[in-house]
Design goal:
Elements lengths: L22 H14 L8 H5 L5 H6 L4 E10 L8 E10 L11 E4 L12 E12 L5 E9 L22 E12 L2 E2 L20 H4 L3 H14 L4 E6 L5 E9 L1 H22 L2 E3 L15 E6 L1 H5 L3 H13 L1 H7 L4 H4 L14 E3 L6 E3 L1 H5 L6 E3 L8 H13 L5 H4 L1
Parallel strand pairs: 1-5, 12-13
Antiparallel strand pairs: 1-2, 3-4, 4-5, 6-7, 6-9, 6-10, 6-11, 8-9, 11-14, 13-14
């Protein structure tokens, strides 16, 4: 017979019915059929479907649960990738582990990751989370691989970043709610009252009647997924909000940030509202842009630190200024102007409690003997957390440490 994908497969004819056949005989018949079946792309969903069921598997079917696996990945668009997702149904005895999740193919020609004449790409699961919005739902963060399932696709930035489980990151994701082509709460023409009372504002005239409902629901979805969501607040401009994600290790934190972004974007479908992640959607006006400030520390910074090390670290950040700007998000020159709590994009600076500096140094850092975390305020709201965290670690790695003190 012909396979629906166009591949020829020879299948044995079904034997004539002779009354109720024992389960063992049915299993034996299916096994003979599938031995003659042509294998189809090992490791893919259809290939897994063709695996021969054992007697134990058939007995166990009654206790299995069908899970909705939402495979999520980043497409090949530049300068900022889009989140993509598609669902497959798989049966498991309990919530699936990462190791149980199969590779899955997709059409890369529709995501700017392949040409139409050779369009196969492969999704490799790298992190798994419960999806409270769906019955038996599972969120599966994936890397994009080449057709062999082993070689990272050129668009796959996660596969090549620096990682350190002792490096702690906290991202502060700012964004605007948009409706009808303008920030939520803005009039059809002109602007609302100047910014000032909107930051951490409370009440209808400051935050409207839907934004808080949406951010609270997003918070609950993140917590249910096991994401280290640290908090929310209304931001400086009207219609602008922020949430914070913390994680240990660059991959762990960035995985959770991308899943949190996915949950927020999917949730807006329910409310008929868009998310605008551009760092300066209102242009050169007296309205704040959106950042994704990166709070970071390493084990050495937390436990050893010291003024001399701190000054060498800041010198390294200054030296690598352009390497950081290159991965801190597109159009950052429009946001990092020296206005609206930003430092100029082409000049590095740092200061204690200074929100107009490239890196803000908390009072707690100084009071604790130059130990703790620092805040890089330059990454913008469209930045890729994988690349941002990796660049921070690259720069830190250039600064010598006292190996004995860090042990």
């Amino acid at each position: 017979m012909t396979h629906p994908d166009g591949l020829d497969q020879t299948v044995m004819p079904r034997p004539a019915a002779r009354g109720p056949a024992p389960v063992a005989r049915l299993v034996d018949w299916h096994a003979k059929c599938f031995k003659r079946a042509r294998p189809i792309v090992a490791g893919y969903a259809w290939g897994n479907f063709l695996s021969v069921p054992t007697f134990e598997m058939i007995q166990q079917r009654g206790s299995m649960t069908k899970y909705k696996l939402e495979y999520i990945w980043l497409d090949g668009y530049t300068p900022t990738p889009n989140l993509r997702g598609k669902t497959q149904i798989k049966e498991f005895a309990s919530f699936p582990t990462l190791e149980q999740l199969p590779l899955w193919g997709f059409d890369g020609s529709s995501t700017n990751q392949a040409e139409g004449h050779s369009s196969d790409c492969v999704l490799k699961p790298v992190a798994v989370f419960p999806d409270a919005a769906r019955t038996n739902g599972v969120l599966v963060m994936c890397e994009v691989m080449m057709p062999d399932g082993k070689t990272p696709h050129p668009s796959n930035k996660r596969a090549t970043i620096l990682d350190d489980p002792d490096a702690w990151f906290g991202f502060e994701q700012e964004y605007f709610f948009y409706k009808d082509g303008r920030p939520l709460g803005f009039p059809e023409h002109g602007y609302p009252a100047p910014q000032g009372p909107y930051y951490t504002g409370v009440g209808y005239k400051y935050v409207g009647d839907v934004a808080r409902k949406l951010v609270e629901e997003h918070l609950d979805l993140c917590l249910a997924a096991g994401i280290n969501h640290e908090g929310i607040n209304a931001e400086v401009a009207k219609g602008q909000w922020e949430f914070q994600i913390f994680g240990k290790g660059s991959k762990t934190c960035a995985d959770q940030m991308w899943i949190a972004r996915y949950l927020l974007l999917r949730l807006t479908e329910k409310y008929g509202i868009d998310i605008e992640f551009h760092c300066k959607p209102l242009g050169d006006t007296d309205w704040n842009g959106s950042g994704m400030h990166c709070n970071f520390s390493t084990k050495y910074m937390r436990e050893v630190g010291g003024k001399e090390y701190f000054e060498k670290l800041m010198a390294a950040f200054d030296k690598n200024l352009m390497d950081h700007i290159a991965v801190y998000g597109p159009d950052n020159d429009k946001r990092l102007t020296g206005k609206h709590e930003t430092a100029p994009w082409n000049k590095f600076s740092y200061g204690v409690a200074d929100r107009g500096a490239s890196i803000r140094v908390p009072h707690s850092f100084i009071n604790n003997g130059y130990k703790g975390y620092l805040e890089d305020r330059r990454p913008n709201s469209q930045g890729d957390p994988y690349q941002i965290a990796s660049q921070v670690l690259k720069t830190i790695a250039t600064v010598p440490t006292d190996a004995k003190a860090a042990a």
